Amino acid sequence: MIYLDALDDRRGFQAIYEQNPLRNIEIKKEESSPHTVEEYIADAKRDSPSFAEIWSELWYEEISHSVKVNEAGVFVDRMLESVEKMMVDNLMKGYTPKRVEAKIPILSFYALKNPKLPNAYTDEQKAAFDQFDRNVAKPFSRSLISEFQNRFPHANIVVIPDGHHFCFIAQEELVHGEMRKFLLD
User: Fold this and answer.
1) Are 67 and 77 within 8 A, CB to CB?
2) I need a labelling partner for 105 at 20 to 30 A (CA). Which of 63, 127, 132, 141 fits?
3) Closest CA to 115 of 65, 52, 50
């Protein structure tokens, strides 16, 4: 079994989120009405610097299938915001993993990313978030990695410092090399 930055127990995320100093800050996004996929992508890169730094043709292809043109001729997400919110809420609040005793070989990748915030945040807000990430979020992530290792002592865990959730794109060579080695063993 191979996990790609997939933590199986997310029940503690809500408590961590409540400590995020940016959780109630609404940043003003530039008004935009993208009339092409390229304009939509430019907006996505501006609003999500962590995606911008791993952008590739694969992302272009993915985005082209996840947007639609509304009645006004503007490119918008296919997934309704309400559906996305329900998915995130369920992952953070409603999901409780079943206890399993896995006897199969396991390789698990964990990306300990250093989040990149949009320039719309102030320097003070960025500094407060960096402190939160360093003192709360990263230690919590490390505790989840330890818990997983304790549950599955035979698992091979690869922690990617300054990794990305989409590690199979952002750290492609490392991920493929570790997977190849794991599958050949």
Assistant:
1) yes
2) 141
3) 50
